[in-house]
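User: Hello, can you help with two protein structures?

Assistant: Certainly.
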Amino acid sequence: MIRFRQVNQGIPDEDVTEMIRDNPPENFFADFQANFFSGAFRVLKRVIKMRNIAPPVVERREKATLHFLNREIRESRGGR
């Protein structure tokens, strides 16, 4: 599932924020919709790319996940 919140957070730049603040929704809906789906496609491409490089075998995936989990644990405890 695409993380639409992630897509939505990437849309508002200063111009879009000003447009949303100063105009009724019907004035900017089409622009917002185009930006939203453009962002959704970018996220989808990233997700597909990540799935393509992820290890296909469950054991390898678990080993990779454990490696990164252990690294996060070490970093969160002040280690490197």
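That covers the first. Now for the second protein you mentioned:
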Amino acid sequence: MSDYLPGTYNWPSAVSGDQFPGFTNFAITVGGVAPAANLASVLIHFRRNDDDSTGTPVLALSTEDGTIVIEDAANWEFSIPAFDIELDPGTYYYDIRTVDALGARRTYVKGEWSIARAQTV
């Protein structure tokens, strides 16, 4: 039986109130190869507690609202446009939930994002 736990990628640390530059061509692969069915949607939820999967996320990014853009569905590449970091300082936990063209849901990536306090306000 294969291991179905997500891989870990920690986002680069950032400062509250700054603009996050985004990601271009973020690709998900398994063993160096994109999953077989095309990527259909992507959802990322950020939460303050690693074990909180029931409360409202403090930040949600999604292909539904355009805060995530699928660039190449066959190669599972997507981008996250730049956005203002409107989060309090602290550590945030996230995962990337994907849905493929066949409707299969899968969480391939999880990690942390450290937000520092701005010194100049």
